[in-house]
Request: fold
Amino acid sequence: MPVIHRKFKLPFCYVFVLALCLSGCQASKPAAEQPAKSAPATISTESDDRPVIVAFGDSLTAGYNLSEAENYTTLLQQKLDAKGYRYRVVNAGVSGDTSAGGVRRIDWALTDNAKLLILELGGNDALRGQPVSEMKKNLAQIIETAQKRGVRVLLAGMEAPRNLGAEYTTAFRQAYHDLAKEYQVAFIPFVLEGVGGRPELNQPDGIHPNAEGEKIFADNVWRALEPLLAQK
Reply:
């Protein structure tokens, strides 16, 4: 499986805002209960017999405060269609979700025709100060559930705020690397590379990408996703 390795260090001001803002998002309603601009995108009205790519994550996947047209999953669908790949992207993002929440809903998120899972969870675990070992165990369970169903996984890594301490942030980052290696899954070390820490690419909360940042987010995922599409 392809592995994308890039180093990215978050400015302290960014991670401080990250901690303040996302911690305030923990009580967010699920994406389906958010106002229209925060709801998961319905990607396509075409026939449902196409293989499904499940985008599974938190508010970053749900497209917090973005329109359907701006959401990264919509942008992925456009890339798939433009390149002639016959897949349908389904947005299974829930704002405020944690890895434990992902374990509870992964079974129903993986439909019978699901072929690929983009797994983007863990950021809210860090913001809640959850043990890295618990997050890692939960993500492992999600990956195992997908693989047992024959669904390939693209693991999207996150970074923990530095105010949690060097030991925590290092362990948090390493957990994704370890999971990618153990389960031999495609991997993006930091899914917000090129977006994090850049105010012009983020919403006023300093963490969720704006429409321009969402394009880079989509490109980051696409570079790791496209090589998987030709694999059987």
